[in-house]
Amino acid sequence: MSKRHLAVFPGSFDPITFGHLDVIARGRRLFDELVVAVGHNPAKDALFTPEERVEMTRVLTAELAAKEPDEARVEVRSFGGLTVDFAQSVGATALLRGVRNLSDLQYEVQQAVTNREVAGLETAFVVAGQSFAYTSSSLIRQIAALGRDLNVLRAMVPEIVIEMLRKKKAEGHPMLVSLERSGEE
User: Fold this and answer.
1) In-domain check, residue 1
2) 48 and 8 Cβ atoms separated by less than 8 Å
3) Which of 97, 137, 141, 173 is catalytic?
4) Is the pLDDT of residue 184 over 80?
5) pTM over 0.70, yes/no
6) Active-site annotation holder among 12, 20, 26, 97
7) Domain residues for 21?
8) How far is 28 from 60, CA to CA, in rounded Å?
9) Above 60 in pLDDT, residue 1?
10) Of the residues 40, 100, 116, 169, which is catalytic?
11) For this structure, is 167 an active site residue?
12) pLDDT digit string, tens, across residues 32-90
């Protein structure tokens, strides 16, 4: 009897981007099951609440599943604490990580070695598609804070994210206000 291979794709997803969705789509082809683990770090400021990030991710992964129903099942869950502890709690055989560039690779290899030594968890790397190589959640937040027209983000994030960014900007979210002020200096 063969073992089912469940991977955890951890991240803050603040916000989720097309690059993240690309990794999820390809991870669904590599593993039997995929858990997208939306991390919550109380020591780190976030633009979106954990609940908002989970909800956006659930909506978008459901859309992926509808387009490719024969690929692996995806579950979206929130977690706090160490990624390896969460991965072990769900029975993961591997972590899935996206790599955009050489800097990412250097950091991710260091993390992968540590995770293997500490928890016996392997890491599978998926290289980002060329169109996602320079997209990051922090870049999206900066553009949202400094840009007037959020439609410029259409190539980087799904429409649901743009709408949520508009809402946060209209509410004067402190993170966006702070980024706007620092961009004016």
Assistant:
1) no
2) no
3) 137
4) no
5) yes
6) 20
7) 6-132
8) 14
9) no
10) 100
11) no
12) 999 999 999 877 889 999 999 999 999 999 999 999 999 999 999 999 999 999 999 99
Last residue of a domain, one of 92, 115, 132: 132
Q: Which band of pLDDT confidence, cut at 50, 70 and 90, is reported for residue 185? A: low
Per the annotation, the verdict on 173 as an active-site residue is: no
Q: Is residue 178 located within the same domain as residue 141? A: yes
Which residue is listed with tokens 């794709």? 9
The question of whether 181 is a catalytic residue gets the answer no
**50 and 92 fall within a common domain:** yes
CA 52 to chain centre: 13
Secondary structure of 119-179 in the HEC alphabet? HCCEEEEEECCHHHCCCCHHHHHHHHHHCCCHHHHHHCCCHHHHHHHHHHHHHCCHHHHHH
The domain tally of the chain equals 2
Active-site pick, 2, 3, 44, 148: 44
Asked if 37 and 92 sit in the same domain, the reply is yes
For residues 128 and 146, state if they share a domain. Answer: no
Neighbours of 147 (CB within 10 A): 15
What are the structure tokens assigned to 54, written together?
A: 């989970």
20 given a catalytic annotation: yes
